[in-house]
Amino acid sequence: MFSSLSVYTLLALSVCAANAFPQYQSLAGLTRDELDAVVPTLQYSPPQPPPGPLADDSTKLVNDAAHPHMPLKPGDIRGPCPALNTLASHGYLPRNGIVTPTQIMNAVQEGFNLENAFARFLVFSTFLVNGNPITNLMSIGGATPLTGPNPPKPATVGGLNSHNNCEGDTSMTRDDFFFGNNHDFDEARFQNFVNFSNKFGAGKYNLTVAAELRHFLHQDSLMRNPQFSLVSPRLFTAYGESVFPINIFIDGRQKDGQLDLTVARGFFQLMQFPKDFHRHDGAISNEGFDTVYNKYPIQPGGNTKGVNTYKADPTSATLFQPCLRYTDFVNKNIKALYPNPTGLLRKSINTNLQFLFEATAGDNCTQVFPYGKDN
């Protein structure tokens, strides 16, 4: 269903190049009046409403003839998320790695059976920080001109490689940002995954292994990374990262919660579904994260004065404060990137914030409006 996206993107960008402003030029430094005049010319693409839950969330073959694995072409982008990398390499997402939030929603539900509200919160929180609200495009890896002209700074539009949102310290297969490469597969870190699976899981990755490995990764960053940080929202995605291989990388016909290491490498390194792979049977989110956390509970925080100087951050939401995570994300993270958006930029951000809030319905959170309400 996405076969025409690359063509569409190129057409849109070629039209954009004909505008008076260079195609990929940053808009930082323009006055408010100049920005209001320019933004409407930037191939504005209004946010699309996210899809609802799948009508049929039973297990099904997803490594099928319509979604063959293909090697990367020059210019194709991949990043720190093995799940999205795999979906792109099989064509559930655009193979070039430039996506819209709705495309991600469709792909993670169809390919992995990710639960709708959980997927929505992940997708729109990630997009609001790392995507381009004007063009409605985001890179699943590093920053690229293919997402269109950047909104004014301090917005970054850095893609999923941006530090401390989806990506962050203590990754299982990517190194900490401080050491220079936070997005490419790291064999040494994957060997930790293998060794802990052999030691605690009889050669399989499971919840017992996940708890031990998560603790090790926390201690490793604590002792090596002087800028180590593990606060919301990265705290949330770090523990989600520990359980998602169990929840979505195991064939849906398999019910024992034991991930084969060859299958794991296929996802983490090769970005490839196993042969005859079926998605999870029933929608799933981050089941098991509390088991991983409760074995070695920690408070959000980070190193403050070099390595091994971890200090708890009482202002950060914990794993069990979803409403504080939501309000802090909006009032702190988004406001920091977009202090005073106007016009179409403000309208787009508000729409995406509405989609994000709707994902918290089950938590009974109070909605916040950092830029006021649109009529």
TrEMBL record:
Its needed co-factors are: heme b
- Record keywords: Metal-binding included? yes
- PROSITE patterns referenced in this protein's UniProt entry, alphabetically: HEME_HALOPEROXIDASE
Per UniProt, residues of the Heme haloperoxidase family profile domain are 62-300
Keyword Cell wall biogenesis/degradation assigned to the entry: answer is no
Q: Where is the signal peptide?
A: 1-20
Q: Which domain of life is it from?
A: Eukaryota
Give one Pfam family: Peroxidase_2
Task: Name the Gene Ontology molecular function terms of this record.
Answer: metal ion binding; peroxidase activity
- What are the protein's UniProt keywords? Heme, Iron, Metal-binding, Oxidoreductase, Peroxidase, Signal
The protein's matches in InterPro entries, at most eight in alphabetical order, are given as:
Chloroperoxidase, Chloroperoxidase-like_sf
User: Which family is annotated?
Assistant: Belongs to the chloroperoxidase family.
Give the protein's recorded name.
Heme haloperoxidase family profile domain-containing protein
This protein's species is: Galerina marginata (strain CBS 339.88)
